[in-house]
Amino acid sequence: MANNRKASQSGTIRFVPACKAILLCSLIGGSCVGYVLQKNKLYELGQQIGARQQKLERIRKENQVLAKKLAEMQIPQRLAERVRELKLGLIPPEPSQMLWITEVPQPGPAPATNLSPFHYVRTDGAP
To answer: What is the pLDDT of residue 23?
Structure first.
């Protein structure tokens, strides 16, 4: 009877469980490969972020150094020293070369700056 049972089963019935196993293994394997790829990508992005943060910090320090240098270069005494070093021939202006402008106040009330229409308010306390 064992021979009859084997003869009655077709090849496709034994092929279906193998296909299911292969499909299940490929799904699990694909998920694992995708997980590993994503973890590697996250690691690489973390490395890039760290490198860029270090670069940003370095640039900020350089910017502070340059700002201090600029502030020192803009001091009037330092500018005068630099003019003497470069022998530019610059001298302070004489009083006759200066032109003083005085502002004359206008007579009468100051012109209105608010040109919006008047708003009226009741003073008796009623709404």
So the answer is: 94
